[in-house]
Design goal:
With 442 residues, the chain is an all-alpha fold. It has 19 helices and two strands. Helix 5 (125-148) runs antiparallel to helix 18 (404-420), helix 10 packs across helix 11 and helix 10 (232-259) runs parallel beside helix 17.
Length: 442
């Protein structure tokens, strides 16, 4: 029987959901803001408003109505797969172009939500497993660079202090994950970030300046970084990333449906996708990032045994409250880069392992499946390492084809269709995908 919670218990459970997703939520603004050389004031705004928008995006999904919201106990956060494309857009064009592309992607998701609920068969396990594997593998070099100090051209890059901090963080996360019980194990990454930062503080490597400089309260400002600029290749790139996020969200929706003994219909999917699209649009307007469902919170529903929406409402409210307090956001900006890199190494590697677990369900006695995975991963990683292979093409085309996740997405979908045709769209593939993603989320 499904347990119920009183208000106090629901609040504590909501805080638990917040803690489980917090490190993943702040990772995206920290990575992108650092890569684009945001100053302390900009970083504090970015992290704070991102936290606020995570709460608002979650609220949109909870408030089911005839227009949007899947109405399941789901938590939304920043889409980690958007990191590299957004960094590329921000560096090759402008920050305003980056946010223009996010807005276009959100509008696209809202417009195709109904159609996508029908064409999800384009993404059987051989495709989704490949995509998730490539997402993790292409992000791992970022984690390693951060462990070294962040800036590969800096004199202290790869110093013994940086490497030690990074790997101490990794060891702490692993120890907590292995030896802690229940809820503490589920927030191992967050505890590792806090512990690693405390070690760095003891060595005098943490500055309290961002905390002192941050105001106590602020209000979200539309177009904080300027009026958005729209550019076609940037927009197409973010649309593809949005499609990848929709595929991942599909797995989470079905996993939640299984936990709650609820059949997920095409209407449910449509309302869920549309809520995500609205959250992405708001992310672009308020200059944060795309939002998608967080699978790690599905496990907490199993852990607590309380599977109602009330704790998630509390989580959404707490996120929005924290987002209005810049000093809370400033705390995240104080995390030393090597410590963040150590946590990212664990997180990104785990993403790859999730993809591998999905691929383990694929029938590799079929040579066509081997070719889809091999070619797509090869192209995705190859382009990620040498994106300048397309340097002789127009800059807009370079942006589109210079991202390994985008290339792997196109390759896996098109190859699967080319090799299998209608067979590649069989309903049994979707059932298999749902079953595997449910197991991964658990």
């Amino acid at each position: 029987m499904m347990k119920k919670a009183n208000n106090t218990q629901a609040a504590l459970l909501g805080l638990q959901h917040l803690l489980a997703m917090y490190s993943g939520a702040v990772a995206v603004p920290l990575l992108i803001g650092t890569a684009l050389d945001f100053n302390t004031e900009q970083m504090t705004y970015l992290v704070s408003i991102d936290i606020f928008m995570c709460g608002l995006a979650t609220l949109l999904q909870l408030m089911r109505n005839r227009y949007f919201g899947i109405g399941l106990p789901v938590v939304l956060g920043c889409a980690i797969q958007a990191v590299e494309p957004l960094k590329m857009i921000g560096s090759q064009f402008t920050i305003q172009t980056m946010y223009g592309a996010i807005i276009v992607a959100g509008i696209f998701v809202c417009l195709v939500s109904g159609q996508f609920s029908k064409v999800k068969r384009l993404f059987p396990p051989v495709v989704t497993g490949t995509l998730i594997t490539v997402i993790g593998l292409t992000l791992i070099p970022i984690a390693v660079q951060n462990i070294g100090g962040g800036n590969a051209s800096a004199k202290d890059f790869g110093s013994l202090t940086n490497i030690s901090l990074g790997f101490v963080t990794v060891i702490l996360i692993l120890a907590i994950q292995v030896f802690a019980k229940g809820f503490l194990s589920s927030i191992a990454v967050l505890l590792g970030l806090v512990s690693g930062s405390l070690v760095a503080a003891a060595l005098g490597l943490v500055s309290l300046a961002p905390l002192h400089e941050a105001p106590w309260f602020h209000i979200p400002q539309p177009f904080y970084f300027g009026v958005p600029h729209f550019e076609w290749s940037s927009s197409v790139t973010m649309i593809i990333i949005a499609l990848v996020s929709m595929v991942e969200s599909t797995g989470v929706y079905f996993a939640l449906g299984d936990i709650l003994n609820k059949k997920i219909t095409e209407k449910d999917l449509k309302l869920g996708y549309r809520a995500e699209g609205m959250a992405v649009i708001l992310g672009g307007i308020f200059n944060t990032f795309p939002y998608t469902t967080f699978s790690q919170n599905v496990g907490l529903l199993e852990l607590s045994g309380i599977k109602t929406k009330r704790p998630i409402y509390w989580s959404a409210g707490l996120l929005m409250l924290l987002g209005l307090l810049p000093k809370a956001g400033a705390l995240a900006t104080m995390i030393p880069t090597p410590v963040l890199g150590g946590a990212m190494l664990v997180m990104f590697a785990m993403i790859s392992v999730q993809g591998i677990r999905i691929l383990a369900s694929v029938d590799f006695t079929d040579q066509r499946n081997i070719l889809v995975v091999a070619v797509s991963i090869g192209l995705g990683l190859g382009v990620s390492i040498y994106p300048n292979i397309f340097q002789n093409l127009p800059r807009t085309v370079q942006l589109f084809l210079g991202n390994g996740i985008v290339v792997a997405s196109l390759s896996s979908v098109l190859l699967n269709l080319a090799f299998k045709g209608r067979e590649g769209l069989a309903k049994k593939d979707i059932k298999q995908q749902v079953r595997v993603l449910e197991e991964v989320d658990k």
